[in-house]
Automatic annotation (TrEMBL):
The lineage of its organism: Bacteria, Bacillati, Actinomycetota, Actinomycetes, Geodermatophilales. Residues 8-123, 141-259 form the VOC domain. GO terms for molecular function: dioxygenase activity. Pfam families: Glyoxalase (PF00903). It comes from Modestobacter roseus. This is Catechol-2,3-dioxygenase.
């Protein structure tokens, strides 16, 4: 078993054609703070997070996931992972080096099995942040990222083998088989999940709120603003977290959540949940039904960035 050196999820970077509209949504309606900008680039932080940014937006002709970033504890861990990946034949985009992004640090990038760009980094300067106050309906941190995969079994195996992600739970359907795998890098139930889909793409990015009241206030705030809600509000069984899914201006699904389960990793055993049981999707029974329409919106457009490293 590979030693787990990944400590946490840092940020998700998205490229979009209409940069201004996307930036207005995330920095205004969604509740993130624009911390750094450059020509056609914006780095957005969560007020409650020490991460320099949790979303990066980049102007591009193509809609794509630019990269997903994970942290390690030390530069030595970065070097160890880079060496192990290279030895296993994984394509590195570059050798570990000083990062040229806000907060600096030390890291490298590589392509996963389906061609997504992944960044591993350490020693990024912590951002001055604050405690989110009662009633504030803005994200505290980036909770997790869910990926659509045309080869989900292969993708799960890749992250288990190379980055020591652990399986927390699996969702299955009696006719379609296993459909979603929840994977963790620390005691949070999942930092990433892999969903069976028609093509590689972003399924959704999820943002943690302070608590139930702030989560519901945020859900209501987006509804009043006319943002299209896909699914929710409700509470999943896997992870025991709340959910409200919306579409950003480019059709990416984004989620407000809270109370994601923290596991005792020494005693945890993964469950296999049948999501035809309504309580598996939503324990509360308050969300709209998970139907074909909802599922298709989460498929997203095919990612145009596979095996193409972002320019920044």
């Amino acid at each position: 078993m590979t030693e787990r050196l990944i400590t946490h999820l840092r940020h998700v970077d998205l490229a979009v054609p209409d940069f201004d509209k996307q930036l207005g949504f995330y920095s205004g309606t969604w509740g993130l703070r624009t911390e750094h900008t450059d020509s056609g680039l914006a780095y957005l932080a969560a007020e409650g997070s020490p991460e320099q940014y949790i979303v990066r937006l980049r102007q591009s002709a193509d809609k794509r996931i630019d990269l997903i970033s994970f942290g390690t504890a030390t530069a030595a861990d970065v070097d160890t992972l880079a060496g192990q990946l290279a030895a296993d034949g994984v394509q590195l985009i570059g050798e570990p080096d000083t990062l040229q992004t806000p907060g600096g640090g030390y890291g490298f990038r590589f392509f996963d099995n389906e061609g997504r760009t992944v960044e591993i980094s350490s020693d990024v300067e912590a951002r001055q942040h604050r405690t989110i106050e009662e009633g504030e309906s803005i994200p505290v941190r980036l909770s997790h990222v869910v990926l659509n995969s045309a080869d989900p079994e292969g993708t799960v195996a890749f992250y288990e083998k190379h980055l020591a992600f652990a399986l927390s739970d699996t969702l299955m359907h009696p006719r379609m088989g296993n459909m979603m795998w929840f994977m963790r890098t620390n005691a949070w139930h999942h930092s990433m999940a892999v969903a069976r889909g028609p093509h590689p793409s972003l399924h959704h990015a999820s943002f943690e709120m302070r608590g139930i009241d702030e989560y519901m206030r945020g859900t209501g705030r987006l509804l009043r603003a006319g943002v299209e809600k896909i699914w929710g509000p409700g509470r999943h069984m896997a992870g025991n977290n709340t959910f409200s899914y919306f579409l950003d201006p480019h059709g990416n699904t984004v989620e407000y959540t809270t109370e994601l389960e923290v596991l005792d990793e020494d005693t945890w055993h993964p469950h296999l949940y049948d999501f035809t049981n309504p309580e598996v999707s939503d324990q509360w029974g308050t969300a709209n039904a998970m139907n074909e329409f909802v599922a298709q919106r989460s498929f997203n457009d095919p990612d145009k960035g596979l095996f193409v490293a972002p320019p920044v």
